[in-house]
Amino acid sequence: MLKKILIGLAILFVAIQFYRPARNISSGPASNNIGNAYAVPEDVNAILTKACNDCHSNNTVYPWYASIQPVAAWLDHHVDEGKGELNFDEFLTYKPRKAHHKMEEVNEMVKEGEMPLDSYTWIHKDAVLTEAEKLALANWSVAVMDTIAKQYPEVLIPQKR
Ligand code: HEC
Fold first, then answer.
1. Which terminus, N or C, of the chain has the lesser number of Cβ atoms within 10 Å?
2. By C-alpha distance, which of 19, 9, 126, 133 is closest to 77?
3. pLDDT tens per residue across all 161 residues of the chain
4. Which atom of ligand 1 is the closest one to the Cα of 114?
């Protein structure tokens, strides 16, 4: 009985390896990247690259085990969900109010230590943000918010519901 179950599981494991969803890798120009309209200082860019962009951009750097199911499906889900909420490569397609709000979220998430996700930092140890890195991101998000608010003052007016 146990042998049959193990064989069944082995077959299942092999079978799911054939499931190959498209990867989050884009070769096109990132013309809507946040950096094309807002200043992204060198140090902030480095933090975004190592700690955020795998899930919040159009390019994920995949580790080797990302090819193995069911890990791949699990990672894909995070990338899809993360990108759906906030994509730095699509940032310039956001309306001013949304862009402003997303930066407010960045500020909160980083200060509260909610981003990057724990499951990410278990493996990507260098993505654990130091206090200085958190501060750099938080200050940057405020600077971007200020720039948006100067251009589009209406983002500061609360919306009627
Ligand atoms: C492993 C993937 C992953 C990484 C790395 C990651 N995020 Fe996320 N992020 C997500 C997912 C998934 C969500 C949506 C679910 C949630 O809010 O928990 C999210 C949501 C967010 C949101 C919320 C947007 C909204 O409007 O609610 C912000 C802001 C955010 N992330 C910022 C960051 C920043 C900044 C970093 C880097 C310091 C980062 N994330 C790193 C996966 C990731």
1. C
2. 19
3. 899 999 999 999 999 998 888 889 988 778 999 999 999 999 999 999 999 999 999 999 998 888 899 989 999 999 999 999 999 999 999 999 999 999 999 999 999 999 999 999 998 999 999 999 999 999 999 999 999 999 999 999 887 76
4. 18
Residue 89, domain extent? 2-156
Split into its structural domains, the chain has a count of 1
Whether residue 121 is contained in a domain is answered as yes
Say if ligand 1 is within 6 A of residue 55 CB.
yes
Pocket of ligand 1 contains residue 100 by CB under 6 Å: no
Among 50, 83, 109, the mutation site with the greatest number of ligand 1 atoms within 8 A of its Cβ is 109
Whether 118 maps to a domain, the answer reads yes
Q: Is residue 161 part of a domain?
A: no
Q: In whole angstroms, give the CA distance from residue 141 to residue 34.
A: 11
Q: Tell me, yes or no, whether 93 lies in a domain.
A: yes
